[in-house]
Amino acid sequence: MNHPTDASRASFDALRSRLQEGQRNLRAEYEAHASPSRLLQGRTRLVDGVLAELWQNAGFPDDTALIAVGGYGRGELYPYSDIDLLVLLNEEPSPEQGEHIQHFIGQLWDLGLDIGHSVRTVEACVEEAARDVTIQTNMLESRRLTGSAPLYRRFIAGTTACLDPEAFFHAKRAEQEQRYNRFNQTPYAVEPNCKEGPGGLRDLQNIIWIALASGLGTRWSDLARHGLITPEEVRALRSNERTLQQIRIRLHYIAGRREDRLIFDHQEALAKAFAVKPTKARRASEAMMQRYYLAAKKVTQLNTILLQNLGAQYLPLAAYQAQPINERFHSIGDQLDIVDDQVFERSPSAILEAFLLMEQHAELKGMTVRTLRALWHARKLITPAFRRDPANRALFLRLLQEPRGQTHEFRRLNQYSILGTYLPNFGRIVGQMQHDLFHAYTVDQHILQVLRNVRRFVMEEHAHEYPLITRLANEFDRFWLIFIAALFHDIAKGRGGDHSTLGMADTRRFCRDHGLMKEDSDLVVWLVEHHLTMSQVAQKQDLSNPDVIRKFAALVKTERRLTALYILTHADIRGTSPKVWNGWKAKLLEELFLATRQLLRGNTPDQVLGISERQEVARQKLRFFGLRPDTETPFWKELDTLYFLRHDADEIAWHTRMLYHCPRSETPVVKARPSQVDTGIQVMVYTRDQRELFVRLCGYFARIGYSILDAKIHTTGHGYALDSFVVMDPNANGNYRDMVSLIEHGLTDKLSSESPIDVPASGRVSRQLKHFPIAPSVTLQPDEAGQHFILSIVAADRPGLLFAVAQTLAEHGINLHTAKIATLGERAEDTFLVSSPNLSNTAKTVQLESALIERLKI
Description:
The protein is of the alpha+beta class. 55% of the residues lie in helices and 11% in strands. It has 40 helices and 17 strands. Strand 16 and strand 17 form a beta hairpin.
């Protein structure tokens, strides 16, 4: 083959201009008509023509071909979609031919196209397709752009011959399940992916791929002709597919690149593009996102129906003999089925009964397509009279009382709009956004996540995660009451006002209507009212203060309430976002629970806080490490009661082992170890007390990119600072052992030298905060004893935030005793125990608060 010659520069420039002008014209036409199909097909035709001409100009041999695959092969090119190409060869390329192909691909990049390409012979294509279902899928939707038609026919014959439709179906279904797992099985993330996420375009493409592999056609009308979907479902598919296409096209244009995530940065612009207007209760972006969630919800419904119908080709339900369950339902294989299409019209109560049977029969893995379709239409039968029917109320309560199945069935109840129809106030929060920067899901999905978490506490396979809670949950009488609290705890979100207070009224009405005993009703209503209280106390108050425990115990009153609140709080925080929950928060909740339980059982505050018990456990640990009896005594004499209150036995033993031999060390002692609670590092600093020590430490941790999760500041009786920290790298992979030595040496050098304090660079504000800014707030109140003050701040979290607070406190002569760091997504809610003679002076207090507010501003 001759080495290729470039097309003339003028010809190449003309092609590039043609491409650019064509894309501008397509966008203008789209803005005028908003037709996604015209845009997607129009860009495909435009690129087809440019590539074919460039291929011809490049002088490729007659026995080669250029093939469009993937989305490009399907004929759907979004504004910034990549161009998937296969250069098909008759034989393995020579080095010269390889250079020729690379030159051609380089020209495509020079045209401004985002190219994904492969170079293969027909034999290599067949081999790769047989080995990798993703490659097989790409080749399934191929088109010949130019080149050898006989070679392309040989390619089609080879790849078709190696295609096993049944194996392909199972592989694509497994692939979808893995994809769903990556997105936590929900389309209701606050920043969903409209292509890959559940309910996204990939769900629709998956159906077409399976249909194509099975020889059932390439269009929704083809599937209807084969009896797999109804004409009504075809209309729904087309409508929701069009909605998703419109959203993805707009996203590409707004971002100016390939972008499939509806991130906060683009949601308001999307709403504007769709001419969605704000209301008094909702932003325009919230209304637009609800439109997306409804489309995604319908797509997941139809995807489920179609996958089951397509799968029936390989494992037809007709092969199974129906097994009667009752006069309304029977099972076919492992599917629940209605005995005829009029079941729900004859007996509307069967709507709820269907979900109850799914909970009661572990052998049932799903519902037949006929049942799912009937349920979707039957939701209209849930009228006020249906809700008032005592039989229906009893059925709904039993859904919460069954020993298994709540997670799957309440998701299914929500998916098919039964839950929101039976509980209209729940229906109001379906698809409702939460712009608090720490919830990762819509309100309804968060509630279902909390319900799932509560359910896991009574499951043996999850007992290893939190053994104490699992034991408490399994010992709790009428555990299903906590399910009700989980279902209602956030049901009043978005109404304006305190959602906990507003939710109490909904909860009380539900309990009364469903015949709960007063004792049970009072518990559930109380849980909804106080579902935020325990996390606030644990994360913001000093748990070593007996008054904090005493006050919390007075609120809780009974051990039953305490246990229920502990379980609900744990489940609630874990259900907000994977980023919000960590082992440190679990430890704080557990400490508060155990201390309060002891107080409620009649122990004194001293017994509750267990100083003598902690010291004894610490001594046992020291003996285990070989320290002789009373080795710790001289060092412990320099530590006051407050130290033993604020540190657990393991920390006390660790500090003692590191310091008993050098209580008057002239050089700083810095020790670190991987956290005993969760990921992160525990750091101990022991040095002669000095001004701005906490500022210096915060500066060091900020400089190396570590966040402080907890800080305990203590001064010994002989003038030494003994400070303890829990720190973590927000971007770490969880392996902290390599950092232990670095921190020990680096921090020791920093404290030993006269070097200036590290001043961290201003942290970059996250993109979420740019769109949903947090107004900083500062409150300063005396504690009940009047000896210390509690400083609470709320601000946008960012690197160096704690350093800014510490520096401001030092500048105003404020002594810091403890720091409780609570980061909720992008929101920092930190609490400090401080003291200073200056805080009794109103003018100086105002100056401090003003200075803090200024430093906390973004």
